[in-house]
Design brief:
By secondary structure, the chain is of the alpha/beta class. It has helices at residues 72-82, 141-151, 173-181, 191-200, 226-235, 237-250, and strands at residues 12-16, 25-30, 43-48, 51-57, 86-95, 105-106, 110-114, 156-157, 161-165, 186-188, 204-214. The chain is globular.
């Protein structure tokens, strides 16, 4: 893998919307050049609860990057170059089940990829590398996130499957009903390949899905609009920011995790 080229350091990375900049104390912005091109924007570096944190808006500060055009490899590799070992990744998501209500949060444990054409590996050869992805989300960070959300009194679903669609369009009713029929809970446009690339870089990765709406496949649901999604997400930004702070507080940077050894046995 290419060598690092920055002296800046961070321990924990956060992907999210521009509303999260206020999370970080004494933040300073840095531009990072990666072997995979430019990240979505400059990264904000600072501290939360005494820990070094890097923040990057995955769509760019002004939300200029649709989900299918995000340079996921550059975003993840920029975090790796900073020394980040753990990623917290909140996302706006739709619900595929009536019991997963808008305003609640899901700490996902599985993902289904329905995207196409995205650059989703750092290993294009000449040595073939097969990384296990049976359990996509970090077993160490997930319970920390669940406990933090419940301590806040947030309606929390301890597990759930995210189906990731290509975007930028939303699903048809038929597609949505199909996803629902599979028993999946959440629908989103950015979790893949973000979560997998973190695994290839041996970083712990946890998702917090903020449910903004019911998807159209549920009986009687009106079509969702981007405006509706952003409105609900912005209304809950404060809760998500608080949740991230509490998760960071609870993370033990000295603890071991299987995610940090993901490449062991990945080559013949």
């Amino acid at each position: 893998m290419p060598s690092m080229n920055t002296n800046e350091r961070a321990d924990i990375g956060v992907f999210g919307g521009s509303g999260f900049y206020s999370l970080i104390e004494n933040a300073r912005e840095v531009a990072i050049e990666t072997p995979y091109g430019a990240p979505s924007d400059r990264l904000a570096l600072g501290e939360i609860a005494g820990k070094r944190v890097a923040f990057l808006p995955r769509h760019g500060k002004d939300h200029r990057l649709p989900p299918h055009t995000i340079n996921y490899r550059a975003n993840l590799y920029a975090m790796k170059m900073l020394g980040v070992t753990r990623i917290i990744a909140p996302t706006a998501c739709g619900s595929l089940k009536t019991e997963v209500k808008p305003g609640s949060m899901v700490v996902a444990d599985q993902v289904v990829d329905r995207t196409n054409g995205r650059r989703d590996t750092f290993y294009d050869g000449p040595i073939t590398t097969h990384v296990s992805f049976a359990d996509p989300y970090c077993p160490t960070l997930r319970p920390i996130a669940v406990d933090a959300l419940k301590a806040m009194g947030v309606e929390t679903h301890e597990r759930g499957t995210i189906v990731v669609i290509q975007g930028p369009r939303f699903s048809t009713r038929a597609e949505s009903r199909w996803f629902q029929s599979q028993g999946w809970e959440v629908i989103n446009m950015t979790q893949y390949p973000e979560c997998y690339l973190a695994r290839e870089l041996e970083m712990c990765y946890v998702n917090i899905s903020l449910i903004t709406d019911y998807d159209v496949g549920l009986e009687g649901m009106s079509p969702v609009s981007h405006h509706d999604v952003i409105e609900v997400f912005n209304k809950n930004n404060a809760r998500v920011r608080t949740a991230i702070s509490k998760i960071v507080e609870r993370i033990d940077l000295g603890s071991a995790c299987a995610c940090h050894h993901a490449l062991e046995g990945s080559r013949a």
